[in-house]
Write the structure tokens for this entry.
Amino acid sequence: MGYNPVLLEIFKNKFSSVAEEMGMVLNRTAFSVNIKERRDYSCAIFAKNSDMIAQAAHIPVHLGSMPLSVRAAVNSIEMEEGDMVMLNDPFCGGTHLPDITLVAPFYFNSDKPFLYVANRAHHSDVGGMSPASMPLSTSIFQEGIIVPPIKLVEKGKIDRKILSFFLSNVRTPIEREGDFTAQIMANITGLKRLKEIFEKYGEDKVLLYSDEIIKYTGRITRKTIQSIPDGIYEFTDYMDDDGISDKPVKLNVEIKIKDSRMIIDFSESDTQVEGSVNAVRAITLSACLYVLRCLMPEGTPTNAGILKNIKVVTKRGTIVDAEFPAAVAGGNVETSQRIVDVLLGAFSKALPEKIPAASQGTMNNITIGGVDKKSGASFAYYETIGGGMGASAQNDGADAVHSHMTNTLNTPVEALEYSYPFFVTEYSIRANSGGKGKFSGGKGMVREIKVLCDVNVTVLSERRKFSPYGLFGGDKGCSGKNVVIRKNGKIEEKRGKFSCNLKSGDTLRIETPGGGGYGE
Amino acid sequence: MITIGIDTGGTFTDFIYVDENGSIGTYKVLSTPGNPAEAVINGIQKIACNRQKFIVHGSTVATNAILERKGVKCALITNKGFEDVIAIGRQTREKLYDLSYEKQDFFLSESLRFGIKGRVNFAGEILEDIDEEEIKRVIKKIQEAHVESVAVSLLFSFANPTHEQIIGKMLNEFGINYSLSHKILPEFREFERTSTTVLNAYVSPIMKKYISELRSKLFLNDSLRVMQSNGGSISVEVAMNESVRTILSGPAGGVVGAFEIGKVAGFDKLITFDMGGTSTDVSLINGKLPITTESKIAGFPVRVSMVDLHTVGAGGGSIAYIDEGGSLRVGPNSAGADPGPICYGKGKRITVTDANLYLGRLLPDRFLGGSMKLASERLEPYFKNFAHKLSMNPVSLSEGILDVANATMERAIRVISVERGFDVRDFTLFSFGGAGAMHALFLAKSLNIPRVMIPVNPGLLSAVGMLLADIIKDYSLTVMLRSGKTNFETLQNLFKPLIEKGRKDLREEGVGEKDMIFKYYLDMRYRGQSHEITVLFSDNYIEEFHYAHKKHFGYSNQDKETEVVNIRLRVHGLLKKPQLKKFSKKTTSSGKYARVSDTQAIFNSRKLKTTVYDRNLLHPGNVIDGPAIITEYSSTVILPPFTRLEVDNYLNLIVEIGD
């Protein structure tokens, strides 16, 4: 054994607590609800070759996507002590434009950085064609401002020119600046804590154990893969459409397992589409990491040790590896869920006792924007809605909860009515929406909001046509439903992805999908 | 007249009492989990005989009813269309990577959640009336289902409680137990308010039964009060109707004890460290009791004021093992009391306690005052075997186990101190609980905390805290006012009904006007934020808020509009409390006469001659340099080589950390 099991555990603890403390600072100091309440952020520590060592992520969609950002930053800019580089370009290490990453080098009496710290946060507006920057777009240029790797902080000082250029391109500049400050504070905290650790243990030991932690996760990854029977497992599922045409979008995966090796191949998936559901490769990696993490023991550190031991094959220009200038706003939130569905579908053939039926497979993204008649202030409200989880060999799927790649909190009815010209008329569990089976799928939800002034509504949702699958004889879960009830009682059924105007007194009703059932 | 503090714990029920002459006594009996009142009553009778008693009790009855899911059958009445709010919760899952995740269910089957007509908006305006006929039908169904207790939680009930009040009155007419959300927690966020109300409905009838039994065994002129989670005591009447306020009863006693004892000894900035067999509680006292309104119990939110504790799963019984990636882990699994650590005679897996014993830092003959002999001879094969597997020697393994356990506890302390912007060098680590003082000095060293304090009777601190607690009552109300649309006077007026209520409640508890202290707070935020921070209410409260925001979060924004979300009133009713006995300090001396023996203990891989002292023989002014071991009935203090201990005027042990 080249390492000491005591020090390994202590360094595991140290590194993850640095990442978590960065997250605490980001959460506490952030301005926007998106970061504070929805916890749409993550923090991590990286080796000098951009291998991730430790990460604190509150929603899995961030799992695999940061290393590519850090690599992009490190490769394109030489960072000196006190610098921080920001970026969001999905085709250069990012995921979708609202996710902005900030990378800082860690120097310790040295010419070159020993490590990097980074954090990523979802900013609730980065410009583009619609408020909240989650549009039904057809090109990246409609989605907001694109930031290639660029120094936001130079030698400890914010570059006001860059900042003001950025802020001029977004709808909520004060909030953005507040969130940037929080991101900077988070990195500063990370650097400070690393310094303490280096001072206490010395650079050799810290670097040795940062490497050992990656190997540790690698060992667990290989053991996990070994526990899966050898074979080739394939699965195909479809997204309803891309929001522009009616054509379903195919996602296919083939997983090859031999002993402790695994190849995950998405090559047979459809080519990228016109609408905004394209996923860049970083998102596909996140989905793979998420599924593996579910199969690994609780508490295993997420780091480069996982991806070093699996091979993920994607074809450039496909729905799971989109190329510039594809629209990608929804890839992060919707396509990521379907990638998980096909991965789990394939694994269910190898591990029937462990893998559940499909969960709701969407995040039901709702944006409502308008001008409040009473105050004259404009507002943009964004939320996502949970649904049913798939049933497993052990139990029924959970009702009314966010599944897989997200885990964001709802907005309380009372908070909503205080802050927006909305009146909530129903918030309930959707009866009979879970797929039947030996174990039933979890039930979806109903959220019904009456608007008290004229607004524009954009909904980005999935599983309105193709229901969440059941497994081993279990029924499918109910597909979701989007409905507008006009003030005069007229009911309009809407598509999965739509944008429309509502008049004061109209009601938006969202019924989210149920999970699939398991067994007969 | 005798004053008694009673703390019911998992294994023992602890008593501490003071009589007319100021002399203090302690008493411990085995708890009687089947009926906790039994141990309490036996103890009281033993201690007090026929004297008049003033009792403050820390009760786990409400806590255990929730943890063991043994509350009464409940129903919920809420708005139509919102019956599932309690089941949806915040739509999140507690475990991110659990593919067969199951939600905690809320002791409320779907058929017992009733939605009724009637809506109030955020301004308290009634948009739709309730229908009393409908409610009568619901009550009939509730009776038919043999429901024992009903929670009523309607949207915006805190802004206008009329509907809840009408329903409460109707339930009362039918003789049904009920809890109204605007009374339990008049604050916005419907799920958390409903959760708190439902838990209250779930446990209150059980608490009622328990207290009635206790009272039937006391005399009419005896006084019985219950410790509540916020660090103050309440009358039994309140405890019976608002039992949800008592779920951190015992731990709150510990924090109050630390606060009061620390204050008298001259330390008002403390980090409390309570290490038990399976878990460790820490809290941070910065000149006042730490209070939070964001607690959870068994996964359910409880938003009433409670002492702010952080708990981690590491304790003396935590088991060491090698995980599948080859890392040495300690806990969260614990050997518990059965089979217990290897040295208790039956266990087969190495625990933290075993590691301490293996290093000679625990004395097999002096554990629990010598009443339980530790089987040190059992350790060798287990340690040899385990160390061999890791290519380590047993001594480094033992030290490694303690290092890993300490790292977990260190992290817990960092979460409540460093991560909240406090500098630990300003604080004293206040160690209590059975296992605390074996680890406290090492923790202080690695965290750079300069000093550790160990009180008298560290194992009975919760009971001591109950003797020292005032009456504390918390009142709150969501007002949601933008700073631009309100001013000092408006807010003052909004406080008036709360003050009235506080004064009335305190008078009913027998507190005179001159013994009442009122403290005013506001929960504020920048408009658009979703988290509030609590600031003192003063005529420049907005400035206070900017300042507090800057202190907590590193920035403030004078131009941004602020919002007063909740107003909070905290009322203290000062009680006559026993004084801590002060001794005069003799000249500094070595405490030689307290020496029991010499032993060999291992520190930093070196075997050192270590002197053993009996704490009961130490006097104020005694100074002891580490390495040393101080034993007493319920606890062992390990002084590593880098420490120096002095006994203060109250017989507390004050240990300075050196290099």
Observations:
- Residues 5-129+146-218 of chain A form one domain.
- The mean pLDDT of chain A is 94.
- The radius of gyration of chain A is 23 Å.
